[in-house]
Amino acid sequence: MLTGYVEKILKARVYDVAIETPLDLMPRLSKRLHNQILIKREDLQSVFSFKLRGAYNRMSHLTDAERKQGVVAASAGNHAQGVALAASKMGISAIIVMPITTPPIKVEAVRMLGADITLHGNSYDEAFDYAKQVSADEGRVFIHPYDDPLVIAGQGTIAMEIMRQHPDPVYAVFIPVGGGGLLGGMAAYIKAIWPEIKIIAVEPADAASLKAALDAGERVKLDQVGLFADGTAVRQVGEEPFRIAQKTVDHVVTVETDEICAAIMDVFDDTRSIAEPSGALSIAGAKKYIQQNGLHDKTMVVINSGANMNFDRLRHVAERAEIGERREVLFAATIDEQPGSFQRFCKTLADRGITEFNYRYADKQQAQVFVGVRMSGREEERQILFENLTHAGYQWIDFTDNEMAKLHVRYMVGGHAPQAENERLIRFEFPERPGALLRFLTHIGQRWNISLFHYRNHGAAYGRVLVGIQVAPEFNEEFQAFLDNLGYVHWLETDNPAYDLFLK
Fold it and tell me: Is residue 179 within 8 Å of 241, Cβ to Cβ?
């Protein structure tokens, strides 16, 4: 099987539209991690992503009759640009179906390349189904983003370039995974030539479809996926990529949003370029794998797979990067409500820089403060901080990994409302588009009183809302049925300690 893919990759038609991207040293990250980290710069392609390789290779094999009929594809952005560019180069009609939630930068980029765009559905799955229907109705060839041997072979040319650019075998190659096309092509080529090189697949922790499939021994469909790394937010790994992965993948690393944000910062520090979340995925995975295994003096390759990100998402990335690097700790502490208590509290923190301090008077005896403190990144320093607080008599709760506290509560501190009886706290995610917030409120309706509401647009493809709703005990079953039928991803947060301290 692997030998067959090597032949397909060697014969792949990609360089009519793609360039051979450089394999560069990341000097700052390499020094920090005590390993040599080489980054493959697929963000330098004309569409700022590797996806044009597979799209063009697949379309170069169309018959004359198929070219006349045209093509159709479904994509949240990067594959769409690859198909649109290939169609323009070949003079073929192309329809691209994109979810309504697709970032505007990707929609506009596809439009600039001359493809016809149809916005349909709130997810990739809905766009995919519609594109397949268009293919059936109009006779257009469907260009799959990852589950096609010719697409996989096109993506595999990246591995061919790496092995030519670095003739000596490296310790490991870290490959981001969504549907698995990039992994399939690269892993097949590398393992056929240098089987001793480790293939490490990297997935977002909230969209780990490959890991779930490998654990189960068969492909599984995730109930839901996180949307931060939108380029890899795939509920089920492709059939052909999974078949290859079973024979080639040595390990799967999953990474959290904060770790991805820290990796975006690492890429910027070394290259002065900005990777999209999925583009920085393998960098985050390499950092985590090195730390977990205590590796030193190894040479490893990571893939910057893309750079298509809305500018306004950078505020969220910058906000979370320090936490992802473990260079910031967020916590709540209880201090005395009296003059000089804040000064004494700060002395307990010693010379550590305070990055955030939120407080509002609420009680005559005690005050709850929300604090951010800068760290060096060493776990022992974090432990010493909390030991010092305990020794000084302060009660504290670590919120560094508390998603609700990071997304909402830090901006709402001081909102105690003891008069809000029978309050239930729920955190929601819903597709972000014009009118989405109004639609959300319309769905909630007027059956229950809203006692708390926080919404913040992070420049992402999804909106995040924290809602307090007053529900009398006799309506608990009815309210649960309402949540089940609402159709939005949600988390019950009534028992979250951040709620008790600052909002309840």
Answer: yes
pLDDT digits (tens, 9 = 90+) for 217-245: 999 999 888 878 888 888 999 999 999 99
The structure tokens 């330098």 sit at 44
Q: Quick one: pLDDT at residue 421?
A: 82
What tokens were used for 18?
């793609």
Residue 107's pLDDT is 87
pLDDT at 144 over 60: yes
Which element (helix H / strand E) includes 3? helix 2-10
* Same domain? 226 vs 252: yes
> How many separate domains does the chain show?
4
Q: Tell whether pTM > 0.85.
A: no
57 alpha-carbon distance from chain centroid:
27
Residue 69: domain span: 51-142
**C-alpha radius of gyration, the chain, whole number:** 25
Residues 277 and 289: beta-carbon distance below 8 Å: no
Cα–chain-centroid distance for residue 392?
39
Residue 220 lies in a domain: yes
Q: Which of 131, 105, 132, 101 is nearest to 116 (CA)?
A: 131
Write down the H helix ranges in 166-311.
181-193, 209-216, 239-248, 257-271, 281-293
Q: Point out the residues that are catalytic.
A: 51, 305
